[in-house]
Amino acid sequence: MLRPQDTLTRERKRLDGLWDFRLDAEAEGRTAGWQDGSLAGATRMPVPASYNDIVPGTQGRDHVGDAWYQTVARVPRGWADQRVVLRFDSATHAATVWLDGQRVVQHEGGYTPFEADVTQLVTPGAEFRVTALVNNELTFQTIPPGIVHDTPHGRRQQYFHDFYNFAGLHRSVWLYATPTTYVDDVTVVTDVDGTTGVVRYDVVAAGPAAGDVSVRVTLRDAAGEVVAQADGASGTLTVPDAHLWAPGDGYLHDAHVTLLDAAGEVVDEYHQSVGIRSVEVRGTQFLVNGEPFYFRGFGKHEDTPVRGKGHDDVFLVHDFALMDWMGANSFRTSHYPYAEEVYDYADRQGIVVIDEVAAVGQNMGLAGGIFGGQNYTTFSPETVDDDAQAAHAQAIRELVARDKNHPSVVLWSIANEPESDTDAARAYFEPLFALARELDPSRPVGFVNVMLAPHGRCQVSELGDVLMLNRYYGWYVHTGDLAAAEDAWRAELEQWAGDGKPIIITEYGADTVAGLHSLTPEPWSEEYQEAYLDMNHRVFDSVDAVVGEHVWNFADFRTSSTSVFRVDGNKKGVFTRDRRPKAAAHLLRRRWTSAG
Ligand code: BDP
């Protein structure tokens, strides 16, 4: 799905700001039809933001169920005879949207965009009312899964992942205009042939005159010089001596996609940025532009004080600056697709991204330990079932459709730490791997393996192009005994290396309270986090197949309030939640900046 743009033929308007807001735990609004008028008894809520931590009290923080958002906006006067679209960059986890009481779109999945053509419902120059009913319930059929329990004290949401179930309108809401015949989709796939850049493209036009327009694609370099041009809805552009996109060098070309009428007049214009690069897995190597790439960086979260998961450009630029300061070259969008601004910025900064679907917590073995699971079977007709698999497939489709053109995205991660050591898991995942490959044959696909499914037991890893491992030797096992942890970790890793695939350590980390010190490293102290990282690095450096290290986590982050495992959230951050460095930040900086 293309992002809204301002171009010669297009205009957009952000509807962000303070919206009217009302929690509706009893789901009264659905029967009373709150979409039909202005929201009675509303308070104000910022968009974008999670609603949970804005107002003190458990009512908002622990809310389960419906939340209503409403705003009134005006259609720009100049948008007559245009196609007008209302777009939500995300609504967590499901939403129904009305325009002046008319239902226009419904969407499930909290981290991907959705939109509605509202041309027939709006009048240029006039006001209109948007009402969004956002629901945050997680069930075994949603991605990610959860269970809602009815209790004498109200409904309670249980979930099996280790980050707070923040909810609301986390990203921008747009009204945008395109011509009635318009560019509906653009796909670019790039490759490198010697010193020549190769850009294959597909353009889909839609609208009443879609059959009568021709397509022209003009590729410009960063200086604005035309370097290639092609006509036709699909084609190939070749760029001799191309300046490639590469890790650390976010060089972007700009493809001007134009629809032309019979007289050669421009009907619509869309700008698609293009980073020319290749990605390939060869043996145990992960190659970008034919060069071995070693991932240095983090698993992150969209998580900041007060805002929760609300996108914020200040933290976007700040977090990237901190990664740059440390010599990090990559991160994983653990455990869901991030705001599109993040990928745009990664493209420009030359930061490599592992892009993850929000399939986290499909593991009742793990849930039993940390999240108080109650002996559920993960994959069964009563739990994660065919409907869940269909939702998972849809989440993969929407992720690839949204992010396929980002050069920064080099690898799809279709799940984090699911159960993977059973026949049921194998049967569940096999079609999902096939789907991801069919949707995007140009990128490797993997999933993130959990410690409970070690080498020899995991039945899903062989479906992936790379091995992604989360391991906590020295933290959850061999706690405090780094010598024993080192032996056990190396032994397991050497087994995985025998599979002949590149291995990325997608998580390793130790909870650390900033400012807690101990001369002889003790778990939770800054010294222990450093010693733990040093131990892990010795192990990684001794195994050739390891092509990446992503520390868990970039920063401390908020978790559910229902577990005694966490004190004020997960403290495995290299930075605190407000982005102050722990000693480990300096250690990683020394390692990564000297890595060349
Ligand atoms: C892994 C999860 C991650 C957790 C982490 C931890 O992938 O989401 O936050 O462990 O326990 O199981 O810190």
TrEMBL record:
<dbReference type="InterPro" id="IPR006104">
    <property type="entry name" value="Glyco_hydro_2_N"/>
</dbReference>
<dbReference type="InterPro" id="IPR006103">
    <property type="entry name" value="Glyco_hydro_2_cat"/>
</dbReference>
<dbReference type="InterPro" id="IPR023232">
    <property type="entry name" value="Glyco_hydro_2_AS"/>
</dbReference>
<feature type="domain" description="Glycoside hydrolase family 2 immunoglobulin-like beta-sandwich">
    <location>
        <begin position="181"/>
        <end position="277"/>
    </location>
</feature>
<dbReference type="InterPro" id="IPR017853">
    <property type="entry name" value="GH"/>
</dbReference>
<dbReference type="InterPro" id="IPR008979">
    <property type="entry name" value="Galactose-bd-like_sf"/>
</dbReference>
<keyword id="KW-0326">Glycosidase</keyword>
<dbReference type="GO" id="GO:0004566">
    <property type="term" value="F:beta-glucuronidase activity"/>
</dbReference>
<protein>
    <recommendedName>
        <fullName>Beta-glucuronidase</fullName>
        <ecNumber>3.2.1.31</ecNumber>
    </recommendedName>
</protein>
<feature type="domain" description="Glycosyl hydrolases family 2 sugar binding">
    <location>
        <begin position="13"/>
        <end position="179"/>
    </location>
</feature>
<feature type="domain" description="Glycoside hydrolase family 2 catalytic">
    <location>
        <begin position="279"/>
        <end position="593"/>
    </location>
</feature>
<dbReference type="InterPro" id="IPR013783">
    <property type="entry name" value="Ig-like_fold"/>
</dbReference>
<comment type="similarity">
    <text>Belongs to the glycosyl hydrolase 2 family.</text>
</comment>
<dbReference type="InterPro" id="IPR023230">
    <property type="entry name" value="Glyco_hydro_2_CS"/>
</dbReference>
<dbReference type="InterPro" id="IPR036156">
    <property type="entry name" value="Beta-gal/glucu_dom_sf"/>
</dbReference>
<dbReference type="Pfam" id="PF02837">
    <property type="entry name" value="Glyco_hydro_2_N"/>
</dbReference>
<dbReference type="InterPro" id="IPR006101">
    <property type="entry name" value="Glyco_hydro_2"/>
</dbReference>
<dbReference type="InterPro" id="IPR006102">
    <property type="entry name" value="Ig-like_GH2"/>
</dbReference>
<dbReference type="Pfam" id="PF02836">
    <property type="entry name" value="Glyco_hydro_2_C"/>
</dbReference>
<dbReference type="Pfam" id="PF00703">
    <property type="entry name" value="Glyco_hydro_2"/>
</dbReference>
<keyword id="KW-0378">Hydrolase</keyword>
